[in-house]
Amino acid sequence: MIVCHCNAISDHEIRAAVDWMRASDATTLITPGKVYRALGKRPDCGGCLPLFLDTMQGCDSLGVPPQLRGLRQAMTQEKTHEGRRQSHRISQQRAAE
Known about the structure:
By secondary structure, this protein is mainly alpha-helical. It has one domain. It contains five helices and two strands. It has a two-stranded antiparallel ribbon.
């Protein structure tokens, strides 16, 4: 099935590109832009993006690399803001006093 009519990209090509990228580097984050580049094409109108993403998500090898799993949870557990303590603002320091 043709997913991107502007570039004539099929669902088979998308799956093959995702599988190839995952096989060549198991830790890479796979994005639609990287898939386009792997196929030697560039996005044009963007109308295909919802179907493009659905096709990518249907790939078994698309999953998040093990090293990056739980990263968001670890970041939200830290109580720092932009590398500073939470009480870096003057108004918060006065309220604590």
